[in-house]
Write a structure and sequence with these properties.
The structure holds two protein chains of two kinds. By secondary structure, chain A is mainly beta. Chain A contains one helix and 26 strands. Classes of the chains: A mainly beta, B mainly alpha. At the A-B interface, strand 22 and strand 23 of A face helix 3, helix 4, helix 7 and helix 8 of B.
Chain lengths: ~300, ~230
C-alpha cells in the first residue's frame, strides 16, 4: 500500500475513520502512513490487543481486525493517534502495528493486552485488566495495570512498573527501576542498576543481579518474603527491618556500634558504599550469593 | 462469542451459581481466555488475602532475633570470615485465618479504628483532602507521625468516597480486584498501627505505616482515574 503523503500532513491534521459496515461483522484495516524522524504513536483500545513491532524507517503500518467498533486515525506532523471506538459492550479490536525503531509509544487499553518488541524507544502503557509485555526500551518506560501482569526485558533507561493484583517481572535491565504491586510478586533478574525500589504488600520480592558501588536499593514487602541474590562483589551497607519476620544471610554479619535500633539493624560489607534496605513486616528476608559466586 | 462475564464471575467465585446459570458461566469460561484470566486474578487476590492475618500478633519474636544478633555482636573479636549468622525460619506467629472478605473488612475497620485512636489520641485534628496532600508534606521518617497520619486518613477517606461513587462505572471484576487489593493494604495498615501502638517510637514501623498509607493513596488515585468500562 502506498503511504499517505507526508506533505499533506505537514499542513494539517489528517483524520481517517474506518467504520463498521455492520456492528456484528468483523472488519479489517490495513493502512500505511509516512512519518519523519522519530515519530510518536498513541493507540487506545477498549478490548483486544495492541501488538507493536519494529519495521522500517519512515512509515507506520497499521493493521487491525475489529468488530462492534470503529477505528479512527489522526495524524499531525509529530504525532499519530489511533483509537478503537467501541460501539457495544462486546467490542473487540486487534491491532498489529509496525513502526520505525525508536518510535515513542503511548498505549492504553481497558481489557487489552499490550505486546511490544524490538521498537526500543520510550514507552508509556496503561491497561486495566490486560497484560503488558515489553521487549526492548530505551529511555523512560512507564507501565501500569490493575489486574494484568507486567513483563519487561531489555530495558536501558528509567523504568516505572506498577500493578495492583498482577506480577511485575523485569529481566535484563539497566537504569533506575521502580517496581510495585499489591498482591502480586516483583521479580527483577539480571539487573544492573544503581537505583532500585521494589515493593509489594503480600507478594514476594526477588532480586537477582549486581549491587553497584554507591547504588541505592530498597526491597520491601509486608507479609511477603524478600530474596536478594547478589552476583559479583558486594560493597554495601545493609539495613534490615522487620517486625516479626526472619532474616537469613550468606554473608557474615558484623554489627556496627549503635547499628541496632529495636527491630532494625545495619551491617557493612566491603567498602559499604552502596545502600541496601531490606524490609518485611512479617516475611522472611534472604540475602544470598548467587549460586556459583565465590565469597570475596 | 457472548459478552464477557462481569457480575457472574464474582458469583461464580463465591459458589453462588447453580443450574443453568452455572453451566452457562462454565461454558463461557471454557471458551473465553480473557474471562478465565480475570477469574484467575480474582482467585489469586482471594488466596493472598487469606494468607494475611487480621489479628494483633500474640507473641513478639524480636527478642529471639535480637538476642542472636546481640550474641554475634558481643563477640566482635572473632568474626570468622566464613561465619554466617543465620536466622532460621520458624513458623510465623500469625495464625492465619481465612475470613470472608466482608467479615475481614469489618475486622480491619475495627482494628484500624482502635489502633488509630491509640496512635492519634493526643493529636490535633487537621482538615484536608486528597488534593491538599502535597508531596512536600511527606517528610523523612521521624516522630511524631500523628498529624501526618491524620492527613493521610483524611485524604484516603475522600478518595474512598470518590471511588465508591465511581466503582459502578468500572467493570465488576476490576472493581472487585481493586476492593480486595485495598483490603490487603488495610490489613497491612492495621497491623502496622497495632505494632506501633506497642512500640510507638519505632522508626521502621513508622516508616512502614507511612509506606502502606502511601500505597493505599496510590491505588485509590489510580482507581478513581480509571476509565469507565
Amino acid at each position: 500500500m502506498k503511504p499517505h503523503s507526508a506533505a499533506h500532513t505537514a499542513l494539517a491534521a489528517l483524520t481517517i475513520s474506518f467504520g463498521a459496515a455492520s456492528l456484528c461483522a468483523q472488519n479489517t484495516l490495513d493502512t500505511t502512513l509516512a512519518v519523519r524522524g522519530r515519530p510518536r504513536l498513541a493507540v487506545s483500545n477498549t478490548s483486544g490487543e495492541i501488538r507493536v513491532r519494529a519495521g522500517s524507517a519512515g512509515r507506520i503500518r497499521i493493521r487491525a481486525e475489529y468488530e462492534r467498533s470503529r477505528v479512527e486515525i489522526d495524524q499531525t506532523v509529530t504525532r499519530i493517534t489511533v483509537r478503537a471506538v467501541s460501539r457495544g459492550r462486546s467490542s473487540d479490536a486487534q491491532f498489529d502495528i509496525t513502526v520505525p525503531p525508536g518510535t515513542v509509544l503511548e498505549l492504553s487499553g481497558v481489557s487489552t493486552d499490550v505486546d511490544v518488541a524490538g521498537v526500543c524507544g520510550e514507552i508509556t502503557a496503561n491497561t486495566v485488566s490486560g497484560d503488558v509485555t515489553l521487549d526492548c526500551a530505551r529511555g523512560q518506560a512507564t507501565l501500569n495495570t490493575v489486574s494484568g501482569d507486567l513483563t519487561l526485558s531489555g530495558i536501558d533507561g528509567a523504568t516505572e512498573a506498577s500493578a495492583t493484583s498482577g506480577d511485575v517481572r523485569i529481566r535484563d535491565a539497566r537504569g533506575p527501576i521502580r517496581a510495585t504491586t499489591v498482591s502480586g510478586a516483583v521479580s527483577l533478574e539480571q539487573v544492573e542498576s544503581p537505583d532500585i525500589e521494589a515493593t509489594t504488600v503480600s507478594g514476594e520480592v526477588l532480586y537477582t543481579g549486581r549491587i553497584v558501588d554507591n547504588g541505592r536499593y530498597r526491597f520491601e514487602a509486608h507479609s511477603g518474603d524478600v530474596t536478594v541474590r547478589i552476583s559479583g562483589p558486594l560493597n554495601a551497607t545493609v539495613t534490615v527491618s522487620t517486625f516479626s519476620g526472619e532474616f537469613e544471610s550468606d554473608f557474615p554479619i558484623e554489627l556496627q556500634p549503635g547499628s541496632r535500633i529495636s527491630r532494625e539493624w545495619t551491617f557493612r560489607q566491603g567498602s559499604g558504599s552502596a545502600r541496601i534496605r531490606l524490609q518485611s513486616f512479617s516475611g522472611t528476608m534472604n540475602l544470598r550469593r548467587l549460586s556459583g559466586d565465590r565469597e570475596e | 462469542m457472548t459478552a464477557h462475564l462481569n457480575e457472574e464471575l464474582s458469583a461464580y467465585l463465591n459458589g453462588e451459581l447453580a443450574g443453568a446459570e452455572l453451566e452457562r458461566v462454565e461454558a463461557h469460561l471454557g471458551s473465553c481466555a480473557q474471562c478465565s484470566h480475570v477469574l484467575e486474578d480474582l482467585r489469586r487476590v482471594v488466596r493472598r488475602a487469606r494468607a494475611l492475618d487480621d489479628k494483633t500478633p500474640e507473641r513478639d519474636l524480636w527478642g529471639g532475633i535480637a538476642s542472636r544478633i546481640g550474641a554475634a555482636a558481643s563477640q566482635p573479636q572473632s568474626p570468622t570470615p566464613a561465619a554466617v549468622l543465620q536466622f532460621r525460619p520458624r513458623p510465623r506467629r500469625f495464625s492465619f485465618s481465612a475470613p470472608q472478605l466482608a467479615a475481614a473488612a469489618v475486622a480491619i475497620m475495627t482494628l484500624s479504628a482502635a489502633t488509630a485512636s491509640l496512635l492519634v489520641r493526643s493529636a490535633t485534628p487537621t482538615a484536608t483532602d486528597a488534593a491538599r496532600l502535597p508531596a512536600a508534606e511527606v517528610r523523612p521518617v521521624g516522630l511524631p507521625l500523628q498529624p501526618l497520619v491524620e492527613s493521610y486518613d483524611a485524604a484516603i477517606a475522600d478518595l474512598e468516597r470518590t471511588f465508591a461513587a465511581h466503582r459502578y462505572d468500572l467493570d465488576t471484576a476490576t472493581a472487585r480486584v481493586l476492593e480486595q487489593s485495598l483490603a490487603l493494604i488495610d490489613v497491612a495498615i492495621a497491623q502496622a498501627r497495632a505494632a506501633l501502638a506497642r512500640d510507638p517510637n519505632n522508626l521502621y514501623l513508622n516508616g512502614h505505616l507511612r509506606s502502606a498509607l502511601d500505597r493505599k493513596l496510590d491505588v485509590l488515585r489510580r482507581a478513581v482515574a480509571l476509565p469507565a468500562s
